[in-house]
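pipeline stage [seq->struct] | target=Integral membrane protein | organism=Streptomyces prasinosporus | residues=498
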Amino acid sequence: MTDGTGALLVGARRRARESASDAARRARGTRPLAAVAAVFTLAQLALVRPVLGLGWDEIVYVSQVTSHHPAAFFSAPRSRGVSLLVAPVASWSSSTALLRVHLALLSGLALHLALRAWRGLFPTRVLVTAGAFFASLWVTLFYGPQAMPNYWVAVGALIAVGCFLRHRADGSGRGALWGVAAGVALMAWMRPTDAVWVTVPLFVLALAHRHGRLLLALAGGLVAGGAEWVIEAYAGFGGLAERLAEASRIQGGLGWQIAVDDQLRSLGGRALCRPCTGSMPHPVVTLWWFVLPLLAVLGLIVAIRAGRVLPTLLPLACAATAALPYLFMIGYAAPRFLQPAYALLALPVADALWRLVRTPRGRWRPAVAALVALGLAGHLAVQLTVLVHTVDRNVDSRRDWARTADALHRLGVRPPCLVTGYEAIPIGYYTGCSSGATSGNNENTTVGEILRTADRVPVAALTGPGGAPPRYARPWPVHRIGDLEVRVAPAPRPDGSG
């Protein structure tokens, strides 16, 4: 009896030691991923700078939840995910710096969780390299601390695809299924149409192999993340088909349109390339864009030889469907549109780089390793150069909006007020006014409504360089603010007669 008790105690101790050893091994595996996420967070705060003012699209999203500014017009393609993401800060504070820190911390945490979803599918060194590659792209660093949806679609894509593969490899647990649903929901919460494109290969594979649970997780994620967008379509746009049609119109009409050259032009730091004219950036700036798919194909070859095709092929397929509409279906470009594709491509690319470094034997190995290191150093230098240039340019443009707002205040345009015309949304936000447009993609008012508003509060009509003032504002007194013409409606009389 004593011997039996001793054996039980010895077995219990052995299992405890094995459990502790497994926990220590898991902790060692996640520390490098946490380090990548931490460096990414610090790099955002140091290079993008929390004092960077809000951009045009950010203003639209943030103004929906802040009590300090009127809500800007919310057009058909947009989704409420970003607004809810910033609400914990924007709902009570007008501090842009605090909002930037909030988003930088969240984006770093999200990158860590996304990389962890791939543990066991690739070696830790590959995951660290993939995370570092994606995090060091200027577009990732620039948009990580901004109130924009594309980075979060990229994170959701990494989580969804990684957890999908983990569940296929070991279907005994439910954690990976919840990860699939959460990743898809995050994508749909931010941009429902992007979530559909990214998940096409996942649905095809789940249907082909009759994985009912995976199909349920994918569909459940889309419903959970996209339900609000669909409900809003019926409440405010006349139905889902009508909202999709309006979103297509705002984006220039979706259809067969080659935007590959537009994306190349945007790589030099253009936040929005519409219309996308002008010369191409220097070849040094765009070289990585051509090398990326070549390394991804090499990663697939490596995976075939190693007998692990699916963990490489599936992110490649999802990256292709994620990029397809932005390369071949719209007539303009923004570098942030391809962030989900870059995030998914980073994994096979990192695998290929490690194979390049480790495969050669003898005297060739140091030479190849040095060549790869030199290429990565050059790539990082290019990304940081473009990032610094992009940040500086955006700081200047947003300071221009703030200076224009100060000048409008001196002209008597103070909240409550209305700004219409050229760049009305950002200038109106910086001034503390509502913004209005009688035509175009942000149409939300009429001439009659503007004139009636001018009987109650200050109204300013802005005309940009080379533009013509609206007919209703031509009799108003004209002022110059920089290269803008500003017409301010006469102050209403005490009797309200104008």
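stage status: PASS
auto-comment: The chain has a mean pLDDT of 92. The two ends are 102 Å apart (CA to CA).
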